[in-house]
Write a structure and sequence with these properties.
9 strands, 208 residues, binds adenosine-5'-diphosphate, Rossmann fold, 4-stranded mixed sheet, 5-stranded parallel sheet, alpha/beta, 8 helices, binds guanosine-5'-monophosphate
Length: 208
């Protein structure tokens, strides 16, 4: 029986290491497809449109909303971020596990639309380390870093909505652990409806 792909939502405070982890999952294992979001924020040095994000104007973003081209979208620290629909549908169909690296408002919208989605929340080992990573990345001004840390406190209120917490302390260990959590999630009964149905049908035949 063909294994169906699942939607994996990865959230976590800015600087927790989500982007780093996602890149590693995609390069270390074959079953993942990483969704590239659309955003109105400016590219950071080294970011390429179509790779990290599709960088678009507010006008273009609002056109996508109007045309129902996004699975979900949200506003985060004064910018729009959203998940293009076509890629997600195409990759799930191919049996890939599709990773959406999105913030909490979007994560909850995805959970509503796709109840079988797996929601993971990435955390640093402690808050000091989060600040160190954000500052060490060197891609935001002090003002933006403060805004993101303030936002982290708000996001921490929603952690219980997620299925698993993933602690990103040692990167290598975290990548392996995250992959095992995802593999295990494939085997929960709510994600194996077709398999259960098939087994029941076969057993019914014995009873006749
Ligand atoms: P996010 O996507 O969650 O905002 P990033 O992946 O950009 O976070 O990581 C933030 C910074 O922390 C980057 O400079 C990255 O290299 C670093 N980083 C990520 N994971 C770890 C880790 N396990 N240990 C130390 N530094 C890390
Ligand atoms: P950053 O500006 O650091 O790349 O991302 C800021 C926040 O937006 C992060 O929490 C990230 O997970 C989230 N984000 C990125 N893409 C999307 C998206 O398509 N939808 C939603 N809802 N959030 C997103």
């Amino acid at each position: 029986m063909k294994r169906k792909g699942i939607l994996i939502v990865v959230s976590g405070f800015s600087g927790a290491g989500k982007g780093t982890l996602m890149k590693r999952l995609v390069s270390d294992y074959e079953n993942y497809a990483l969704s590239v979001s659309m955003t109105t924020r400016n590219p950071r040095p080294g970011e390429v449109s179509g790779r990290e994000y599709f960088f678009v104007s507010r006008e273009e973003f609002e056109k996508q909303i109007a045309e129902n081209g996004l699975v979900e979208y949200a506003s985060y620290c004064d910018n729009y971020y959203g998940t293009p629909k076509a890629y997600v549908e195409e990759q799930l169909e191919k049996g890939k596990d599709v990773i959406l690296e999105i913030e909490i408002q979007g994560a909850l919208k995805v959970k509503k639309q796709f109840p079988e989605a797996l929601l993971l929340f990435v955390m640093p080992p402690n808050a000091q380390e989060l600040r160190r990573r954000l500052e060490g990345r060197g891609t935001e001004t002090k003002e933006v870093i403060d805004k993101r840390l303030k936002r982290a406190a708000e996001e921490a209120e929603g952690i219980e909505e997620y299925d698993y917490i993933v602690i990103n302390d040692d990167l290598e260990e975290c990548v392996r652990h995250m992959h095992s959590v995802i593999m295990a999630a494939h085997d929960t009964p709510d994600r194996c409806g077709d398999l259960i149905e098939k087994m029941r049908k076969e057993l019914e035949a014995f009873a006749k």
